[in-house]
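WARN retry 2 of 3 for item q-0093 after timeout on previous attempt; input resubmitted unchanged.
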Amino acid sequence: MCGKDTQLPQIIENILVDRGLRDWQSQKEFLYPSLKDLPDPEQMLQLQTGARLIREYVERRSPIIIWGDYDVDGTTGTALLLLFLRWIGIEADWHIPNRLEEGYGLNSDWFIARREQLVRGFLLITVDCGISDAHVIEHIQSLGGEVIVTDHHQVPEDGMPQCIVINPSQAACGFNTYKLAGVGVAFYLAAALRKELSARDRFQKIYQQINLKDLLPLVALGTISDIVELTKINRILVRAGLEHMQKCKITGLQALLKFAGVEDEMVTSEDIGYLIGPKINAAGRLGKSRAVVELLVEPNWQKACALARKLISLNEQRKVISADSLDLALTNISKTELSEKRCLVLRGAFHKGVAGIVASSLVEQYQVPVILVCENDNQANGVLTGSARSVDSINILSLIQGCKKYLEKFGGHFSAAGLTIKPENFSMFKHCIEQKVKNQRSDSHRIIVESPYDLNQPIDTLLQQDILKYYNLLEPFGPENPQPVFKVSKTVVLDAKSVGKNRSHLNVILRGKFSKVRGIGFSLGEKLNELQREPERDIVFTITRNRVRGTTSYQLRIVDI
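OK item q-0093 returned
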């Protein structure tokens, strides 16, 4: 490693090398990502065209409407554009569809109901949706609207909407390989609009006051929550967003961090995945996504705190509903069938708002792709709604696309997808997916997560500051940069007790060389008796941060014992 000026701890270097970063230059770029290394925005197809059209509407003070998806990616992207427009003096209208009543994507009824207010024309900008809504967009255009679609989902085979489309999934787009989230596309549109307006004298003073870094925390939040691959560009954006999260001037986000218990300087991808993102997602899953955008654009601290408390309450409701749906799913799982087919395709009376969460829980527990199809969604249109989640090595969208002849509609990306299906086609679809997974397995595609790193040193040495400093620089974790999993042999469990609902989790204290180490094992409560009989064990774990009453410490999240 010629020219290397930093001595990395061996375990950190092993992780970097294992991820293809063998020389110091590539390791340095990974550990210290810089915004200056972002690609030229002009490479994004139709980005400049979209920014120019928005500028025209801004200058004329004509109506602008932002329409976002109801998940974290869509709501953060919607809030991002609303905040940027507000900063330049424009109060845009906006809508997030009710997941349980309106479903995914655009619908023309909302615009028809407002036809009189929009009679002089308007600009519609979609966020994280729209690419599959060509017919609806054509109807909206007939009502006098111009449309800019910003999306990142797969381009449909039957053609795109006839409007300005800013979607890196287009083969001709220079950002095609970067896998931006919907909020990432929205951020680039805001940046392009800022540049477009900077040439106008009337916006010069405003332009100088706007710091786009204040929007990056929303990019981090939406990208991680949407389980988007952490390519180099996403890593740069997310890392900058995490680092700026506690310093940004988005009042609603600061209130959410406070009520989520994330108040120290460093926010991690795990904080978003477990503490922040679920609280935002809960609102959408229960048909209350408007509350998310209202929070993120609220400038008043007291009102923001009230909205943040509302999200916390909705998340508690979501937990109860999720637990009921998960219990239902677990009763329908055949261990024999799971062993043979290496995937789960379940149909039942699941709450469609939490199907994705339940699927993710099953993926984590069984390490196989999971598709849940909700029977209680069989409404007048005669279709059922399904949510799919996958392990890091299996492209769930590709699997579903291979069985599309049985589906009415589908969309998503590598790790997560949604679909609609007629009840009579479910059995054939299930068989098709199971065969696709079986073929991948026979072709030696990896399904189980990678082997843990053997620590070969006392467990407490991993939590020393010189190692933690570089471990934190491996953030953010997610697809294409999974959180490292470690293994230590013959560690003594000094104390263990079961905790949580139904005593299903496990709290442990482990013996280190210099100090004791605390750990939490979710869904490992059943291991208590054997630990008490045989306390010297091999431990598989990751590093996590524990926040209690304003103090933060490191502990282990036990994966297996």
